[in-house]
């Protein structure tokens, strides 16, 4: 793929990649940041793995195990488990992700203006730089997500492609459990591309099978440890519950103790020898059922909360950078002003990407709906991949929880959508998108 670039384009690719890596390294070395909240938990779990504790004994199960386990084994490989080592792991993974994203974009379109505009934004995007300083799932999950997209859009033998997709999706799901649903997204994108139900069905089943095979050992471990069928983690019930109730007014995380439970929920929890507010694997179905009951009886309020969650995720700027990626700063007044200018520019970038990205989605949903009823009208990956992925992530956030940090895996699709949107504006016609339908 790189060999097909001209000399000047190849030079630009290496230059912008190098600049992106250098910015990531500068941020890690110059911006102090200590792991807090979930990130501190991930780091402590990785330390446990590094020190030799077995995966059965490790306190894993509440969240996806992918990041702390992989980080822990990376610590073993390096022979050092410092915070800076973990950030170095992030920088390496982030650099690899950049190249994979480039390969995916280049396969979806030969228009070099689109390829390099999108790649430049991805390399220099403040969020993608800053999160190398965060010991969380974001950078690793983006690596798996980039791999999934690249594998799907490339012409690989199906006997290799489908199992490889299943394996990669499994690793992504072990990192962020909601990705267990991703084979459906993959199948929808593929169907719009080939309009062959048999081929799409075969791909879906093979991908699902290999995903299940990879995840099965962890699911079995959870069954032995918790006595329940838990494919990856058991936090979905409590997350759904605290985000959908009478007292949640803004669609974000609130302490479970602030929620007023129904008498039925309290009784069911006490029947299991626990009390309301306890977070245990066996209580997950009870919290989840209570949340579902509230959603069914308060559909309008649920819709309001869902709207606020999308707003919190996509239209809150880049406030997550300051909150999660740059703690412990002790700045002079002059440097403080510089910081606020940087954060202001980052806010503008995120707002622009979100606005253009959703405009792109709205226009192309119409195109895809028209294609749904016309067998001969196929939709290229350049249209379906960003559109359907943005819709998928939006649906997850709409139902469960929204905060600026959660837009991280969607930024690639927003960047691609925004660049396509700008390219269409440049040629003075929105019909440029429709030309991607086959």
TrEMBL record:
Molecular-function GO terms, alphabetical: pentosyltransferase activity
Record's keyword terms, sorted: Cell membrane, Glycosyltransferase, Membrane, Transferase, Transmembrane, Transmembrane helix
A GO CC term assigned to this protein in UniProt: plasma membrane
InterPro entries the record matches: LipidA_mod_glycosyltrf_83 (IPR050297)
Intracellular or extracellular location(s): Cell membrane
Record-annotated membrane-spanning stretches: 9-29, 41-58, 89-105, 112-129, 135-153, 165-189, 201-219, 348-369, 381-400, 406-425
Record protein name field: Glycosyltransferase RgtA/B/C/D-like domain-containing protein
Source organism of the structure: Thermincola potens (strain JR)
């Amino acid at each position: 793929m790189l060999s097909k670039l001209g000399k000047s384009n190849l030079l630009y690719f290496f230059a912008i990649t190098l600049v992106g890596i250098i910015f990531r390294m500068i941020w890690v070395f110059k911006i102090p940041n200590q792991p807090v909240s979930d990130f501190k938990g991930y780091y402590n779990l990785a330390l446990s793995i590094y020190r030799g504790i077995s995966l059965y004994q490790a306190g894993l199960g509440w969240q996806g195990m992918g990041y702390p386990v992989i980080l822990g084994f990376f610590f073993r490989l390096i022979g050092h488990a410092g915070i800076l080592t973990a950030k170095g792991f992030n920088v390496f993974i982030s650099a690899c992700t950049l190249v994979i994203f480039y390969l995916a974009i280049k396969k979806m379109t030969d228009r070099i203006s689109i390829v390099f505009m999108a790649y430049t934004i991805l390399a220099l995007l403040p969020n993608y730089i800053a999160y190398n300083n965060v010991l969380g799932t974001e950078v690793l999950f983006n690596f798996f997500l980039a791999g999934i997209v690249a594998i799907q859009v490339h012409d690989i033998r199906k006997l290799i492609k489908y199992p490889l997709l299943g394996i990669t999706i499994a690793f992504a799901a072990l990192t962020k459990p909601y990705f267990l649903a991703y084979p459906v997204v993959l199948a929808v994108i593929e169907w719009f591309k080939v309009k062959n139900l048999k081929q799409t069905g075969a791909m879906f089943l093979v991908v699902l099978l290999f995903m299940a095979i990879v995840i099965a050992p962890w699911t079995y471990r959870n069954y032995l440890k918790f006595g329940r069928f838990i494919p990856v983690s058991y936090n979905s019930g409590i997350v759904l519950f605290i985000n959908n109730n009478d007292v949640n007014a803004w669609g974000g995380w609130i302490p479970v103790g602030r929620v007023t439970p129904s008498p039925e929920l309290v009784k069911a929890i006490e029947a299991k020898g626990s009390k309301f507010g306890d977070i245990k694997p066996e209580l997950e179905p009870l919290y989840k059922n209570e949340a579902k009951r509230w959603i069914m009886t308060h559909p309008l309020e649920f819709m309001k909360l869902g709207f606020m969650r999308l707003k919190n995720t996509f239209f809150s700027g880049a406030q997550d950078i300051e909150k999660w990626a740059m703690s412990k700063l002790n700045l002079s007044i002059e440097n403080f002003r510089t910081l606020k200018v940087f954060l202001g520019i980052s806010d503008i970038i995120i707002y622009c990407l979100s606005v253009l990205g959703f405009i792109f989605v709205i226009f192309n949903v119409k195109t895809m709906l028209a294609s749904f009823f016309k067998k001969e009208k196929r939709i290229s990956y350049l249209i379906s991949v960003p559109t359907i992925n943005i819709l998928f992530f939006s649906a997850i956030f709409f139902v469960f929880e929204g905060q600026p940090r959660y837009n991280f895996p969607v930024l690639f699709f927003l960047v691609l959508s925004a660049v396509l949107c700008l390219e269409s504006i440049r040629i003075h016609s929105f019909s440029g998108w429709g030309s991607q339908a086959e």
